[in-house]
Amino acid sequence: MTVELWSLVWGGALLFILITLSANANVSAMGMGWGIGNRDQAATTTGWGARARRAYINHLENLLIFACFAVPAHLAGISTELTVLGAQIFLIARIAYAIIYVAGWTVAGVRTIAWAAGVVGYAMVFIALLMNA
User: Fold this and answer.
1) How many domains does the chain have?
2) Which of 11, 37, 83, 100 is the most exposed place for a label (fewest CB within 10 A)?
3) What is the distance, to the nearest Å, from the Cα of residue 7 to the centroid of all Cα atoms in its chain?
4) Residue 104's Cα: distance from chain center in Å?
5) Which domain holds residue 87?
6) 111 against 106, higher pLDDT
7) What's CA 129's distance to the chain center, in Å?
8) What is the CATH number of the domain that holds 72?
9) pLDDT tens-digit profile of 2-31?
């Protein structure tokens, strides 16, 4: 498998971790009855649990965009230095973003920088697609 696809796989693993963290925080806050029930009442999770939920939603949105570029690149046989570096930047940035967000670190826009680095990463893959179309 290419680096681009492995980045997608590990991005999926990160999504699973974030969803699991969020779900565990919800059950801890609301109780097991809520967890196995219909969940008609929205979870009132705060702190790291709420941040985990927001991080997983943000990661899902970004992972979808990355997949829209990485999968066609793979199917077209496009794996260049630009796509490899873009995929690596994307994955490292998304891991950093998740850790920073869930931990609640608010140092001088570091989370935003990590998010922007992820965007640059998938933009690099997209640019390579356009250049090799």
Assistant:
1) 1
2) 37
3) 11
4) 16
5) 3-131
6) 111
7) 21
8) 1.20.120.550
9) 999 999 999 999 999 999 999 888 877 666
